[in-house]
Specification:
heterodimer, A: 177 residues, 7 helices, B: 194 residues, 0% strand
Amino acid sequence: MTTLTLAEALPLFGHFLVMSLLAIGGAIVVAPEMHRLMVGQLHLLDDAQFNASIALAQAAPGPNVLFVAVLGYQAAGLAGAAVTLAGIMLPSTLLTIGATRWAQARQHRIGIRAFKAGLAPITIALLAATGWVLTAQNPTAPVILLTAITALLAWRTRIHVLWLIAAGAVAGAIGLV
Amino acid sequence: MAPEPAARPSSPLDLFVTFTLLALQGFGGVLAVTQRELCERKRWLTHAQFVEVLSIGQVLPGPNVVNVALIIGDRYFGWRGAFSALAGMMTLPLVIVLALAALYVEFAQLAAVAGALRGMAAVAAGLIIGTALRLAASLRGTPIGGVAAIALATASFVAVALLRWPLVWVLLALGAVGMAWAWRCLASRDRAAR
């Protein structure tokens, strides 16, 4: 871990501001660009640290975008985390609020209604696709079975998600998956 | 039209607490638990409204679930609501993930921990698929018609999950097709209503 000078922090912040606006579908979409910048160009992190940051944030509670804070933290401590997280969040946050206010003010216009009706099936299918892609990363029979059982319970019952997460953790810890 | 939701957040603090609690349950992704908490438990949104908010959050840059929090917060309490929801979603999870990052090196080497993370990841994937199945029911009665909805959903799934095409292009292309078709259906429906 190094300390970040202002001359290093500003370009890093600038790059994350730009990546924020490119991150359609989530910050993970621009992870390859973050890798190119932080590992390849600035040498703030090595490959193992980069991959571990993503895995850690995915396992921890909270939105997966927090992997960006872990990248910054691994590179330059809390100051690094502040720079990368603020950079990735600021533009997309302002754009989201601006765009939804614009759409909300025009919610009865046919264009906005067509957007909502036309996008709804795509949005739902993309959720299913996300689950599929996550499963396909490690497609062993026990993993597929655990995923399928969870999907069925989440769909058909009101069982609390923490029970399911805990069951998955125990099954993994004792070596079942 | 979709039925109105039964309840609404009482204050920005309510938003902050609600989003904090749901974020803390979101291991491996927060979307599934967000849908459950906001639609089933809090009843702030119907399933159809959740899909609408998520559609907007998805085409805009930024994490989808964070965009959902911002949109819902802003809708009820403006800037204060948006930032209360955002702060709830991010603050405590951020503290936790940075604490874990500080410990991670010793932590990750345990086989039991690696196994537990694998099991939790499998459950997280199942939760997202279950959420998609749950929300699919909200498409019933869609103005674009059942056949078009199934065709759009199937094409999106095949393109992203099986062919692994880049999300942005799939969203742009199929989103344009879906929107154009919906426009046609809504226009003829509006004409019929007049």
